[in-house]
Amino acid sequence: MPNGALVLLVLYTLFYTALEPVAGLTWGALLALPMWLTATAFQQRVPYAWAWALGVHALSWFAQARRCPLPRLTTAGPGTRPACVDADLDPVLSVRS
Fold this sequence. Notes:
About 65% of the residues lie in helices and about 0% in strands. By secondary structure, the chain is mostly helical. Helix 1 (about 5-20) runs antiparallel to helix 2. It is flat, with a radius of gyration of 17 Å. The protein starts with a helix and ends with a helix.
């Protein structure tokens, strides 16, 4: 059954397909469809799913923007640091190239 998540992902897929047809259709098939299926299943099976999703989303932003004790799982290259090591508001207020 169509829902808000499906409408949003179809719009994203159309946007990316307009920019680059092969990449947009690949994104739609490999990312948008699984995201819609898992979001719909989560919403149907978990009471107050919106609150859980909002909490995880907020915690993720907080962990990126603050100095967090999370382990560094990836290496971006020499001279780079993960977002949680940067200053408190630096990821929000600055644009790096």
